[in-house]
Structures are given as C-alpha cells and as structure tokens.
Amino acid sequence: MAIVRCEVMLDMCIETELTTFKGTVTRPDGKPAAEARVAVEDLFLETTADKKGRYELSVPPGEWELLATLGDAAAAAPIEARHPDTGGGGYPQEKTVDLHLALGK
Q: Which residue, of 51, 93, 98, 100, has the greatest Cβ tally within 10 A?
C-alpha cells in the first residue's frame, strides 16, 4: 500500500505548483539548531537545517504539519499551501515559518 501512496504523491507533485516554506530552527536555548530534521511526514518530505539553523522545503497544495526535531527536542507548526485557483496567489510562493524547539515532557 505504501508504494501506491508514493505513486499518487509523485503524480500530485508533478501536476501542481509547490509552495516553498523556509525559516530558521532554534534550540531551546535560542541558538541555531544545526542539523535539525525538518519534515512533512504525511508527504514523506524532509530536509536538514544548515549550520545556521536555516531550512527550505517545498510542498504541494494542502494543509500539513511541519515538524522539526533534534535529539529529544521538537517543534511543530500547521502549514497551508494553497493552489492559485483557490486563492493562493501567483507562483512561485514562499512562506516563512520559524520553529523553536522545546524539550519533550
């Protein structure tokens, strides 16, 4: 079943315009979270923050959760990428989402 989902997601990504989310991931102490993992797990998309904590990830239209993790610290934020036919504006689209990691409880 996972293979079918990957094929469907690939078709969706090819046929639609993507929105690029970018920002900075910071550790609980406020310093950049170098090497933090940033992902939209429902889409099997992920990237790694650079040494300044910066990341960039492009996603297809929809409502998703952006998740950043580094060791035991995590942060999540809801994101929405809109298609231009539903009021998303023109392309290319870029949105900034900064994530501040917190230690799990």
A: 93
